[in-house]
Amino acid sequence: MVGPNSSAVFWPHKNLLTTWLAQVVPWDLGTGDQGEMASLMCGVVLHSFLQNPVVTVAKQCPSTCTRSPSSSPLLCSHPKRRINYARMSQSSSSQQKIQEQPVIEQQRITIENNYGEKLAGVFHEVGSTEIIILCHGFRSSKETSIIVNLAGALTEAGISVFRFDFSGNGESEGSFEYGNYSKEADDLHAVVLYFSGVKRVIGGILGHSKGGDVVLLYASKYHDVPTVVNVSGRYNMEKGIEERLGEDFIQRIKEHGFIDVKGKEGNVQYCVTEESLMERLATDMHAACLSIEKNCRVLTVHGSADEIIPVEDAHEFAKIIPNHKLHIVEGADHCYTKHQAELSEVVVDFIKESLQLNRNTLH
């Protein structure tokens, strides 16, 4: 039995604690020794909470969310910050061991691009000087599962992250365009300038699918980031168009000036103009990759079962990017539906290694 001497930090206030627990805990704690043990265990939770308060989040909550019994705001606590009761010794001389995880604070930030459009983003702040910027893919957003999951994995590793919507996508202002690769690279530049202006170090940029092409184009144009992660980007920009626009798309767009792309139910999902189509076809990923500086470390990750962009594109990137690492995720589709864990592990390990190399170079 646990006695008063072994739990002095809580025991002097047992009656007050029991009264409080009776109001907030929806089950009977019991009486006698069992009740005292239950009170003590809940006291440990209360003490941990007071020492490490959770972060209040207005809208976004990437981890386990619960509401308090009263009308308090939504509370977000990271799953890995929970106490591991299995490791708590039942002897009176044992000490409680709690492994600290980074406190993750989410902040919604709006950044204006060169066209006066406001880009909406979410900043995952864990206190690191370096930040990683995440870029979504075609007709997607910062809220897509692959981007949110990567943000979670990086923040768990103690790395701050910013994920945002390109102009014309998600919550950002502007009109959606089919091509827009160059403009999206400029959107990314606006984000980089913003965080550089508030004394943060851009540790790297990561993009999925179309976003993978955007981060490579960015590195070839601006030469101001040390690390690039290309997740399932397309190498041959002439491929994949017919699958979306149908046969004879060139002839039809020349005739009408645009093509309405419809969904399965016949509703128009987006419009492809001749200008935006030509912009995509003129995007030369081969030339762009040759322009990436040799001191910029590049990781390409691709699924072997990608149904949107063939894995052969990843091997083409590996042939021409000077400082390049390739990782093929066996069996993974374009969205890594069943391979999120491997994707996160590969990305986090590469970025952590790159950040350390950058620090060593600076010193």
TrEMBL record:
One Pfam family of this chain: Hydrolase_4
Signal peptide (UniProt feature, chain positions): none
Domain Serine aminopeptidase S33: 130-243
Protein name: Serine aminopeptidase S33 domain-containing protein
Alphabetized InterPro entries for the sequence: AB_hydrolase_fold, Hydrolase_4
Source species of the chain: Macleaya cordata
